[in-house]
Amino acid sequence: MSGLNPLLQNLRLPGETVRLPSKALYYSSEIVTDDVKKDGELHVYPMTTYEELLMKTPDLLYSGQAIIQTFARCIPQILDPLQMYSKDIDFLLIALRKVTYGSEITINYTHTCEDAEEHEYTYNVDQFIRSSKSIEGSYQPQDSKITLKNGQVVTVRPFILQDVIDASQRSTSTQFDGMSELEFVMAMKDIIVGGIGPAITQVDEVVDREMITEWLEALPPPLISELSSKIDKINQFGAIMDVEVTCQDCGEKLTINVPLNPQSFFTLPSAPAIEN
Ligand SMILES: [Zn+2]
């Protein structure tokens, strides 16, 4: 029915073609369609009110459903967003925002200088898309094998969306209030181990998740730091969310890191404040 309605055909906004920071180099045909695998390019269509509401619903965001549903409608060449690198997902969220609301974004920021007040700073999201770093600088298949100082070989990969969802569900389900110091230490250990664990796909010949977790928990701190700095390094691609602004109070040049939080990122730049 909707395919025959000329009103809807005229409504469909063109959107934009973008190239994934990962260029889809290491994606299977279950993750993106074959044409995307050729050059990493895909088309992003604007959101409608329906997708906009999905992206603003906290429970749907935490479960990943908001992104699954929105990408299915707006970026149909993506087949399984949960398995995509989280840096690609961040990049696509910026592109989605741009094609839906335009390039301009306003953020409120208060500097740390004396008598600083909150000001609005406007910037352009095109710079995030243009300055995005492609994956080759930080990750190639030969970087996936790390030989630790003790001789063990660890196979790693960049974080995927599923890892990010699991991590945020773990951290929101941890109740720090009322914990004993010992419980706190245990919870922090779980967060540290849980934070790098998903990036590890194999240790020596072992791929069993439980064995890998047990091994990580027994790993001495210097080896943990060695491992996490290597994992950090392979994740350094995608959009750089830094904006240069001049403080309106003291005139200092500042770099603000814009958080890619869908709840604040997916709001209209000029939406009127709702007063009660
Ligand atoms: Zn200032």
Q: How is this structure best described in words?
A:
The chain is α+β, with helices and mostly antiparallel strands. The protein has twelve helices and nine strands. It has helices at about 5-10, 35-40, 50-55, 60-65, 65-75, 85-100, 125-130, 160-175, 180-195, 210-220, 220-235, 260-265; strands at about 15-20, 40-45, 105-110, 120-125, 145, 155, 200-205, 240-245, 255. The strands form four sheets. The protein has a three-stranded antiparallel β-sheet with strand order 5-6-7, covered by helices on one side. A two-stranded antiparallel sheet has the order 1-2. Strands 3-4 form a two-stranded antiparallel sheet. A hairpin with a 5-residue loop joins strand 5 and strand 6 (about 155). The protein is globular, with a radius of gyration of 21 Å. The two termini are about 40 Å apart. Mean pLDDT is about 85; it is low at about 270-275. Bound molecules: zinc ion. Zinc ion (ZN) binds near residues 113, 249 and 252.
Essential attributes:
276 residues, alpha+beta, 41% helix, disordered C terminus, binds zinc ion
Query: Low-confidence parts, pLDDT < 50 over ≥5 residues?
Result: 268-276
Which sheet architecture does the biggest sheet show? Answer: 3 strands, antiparallel
Give the strand order, joined by hyphens, for the main sheet: 5-6-7
Series of H and E elements: HEHEHHHHEEHEEHHEHHEEH
Bound molecules: zinc ion
Number of strands: 9
**What is the residue-averaged pLDDT?**
87
Note the overall shape.
globular
How many helices?
12
SS-based class = alpha+beta
Strand content: 15-25%
Q: What Rg is obtained from the alpha carbons, in whole angstroms?
A: 21 Å
Report, as a whole number of angstroms, the end-to-end distance: 41 Å
The helix fraction, in percent, is: 40-55%
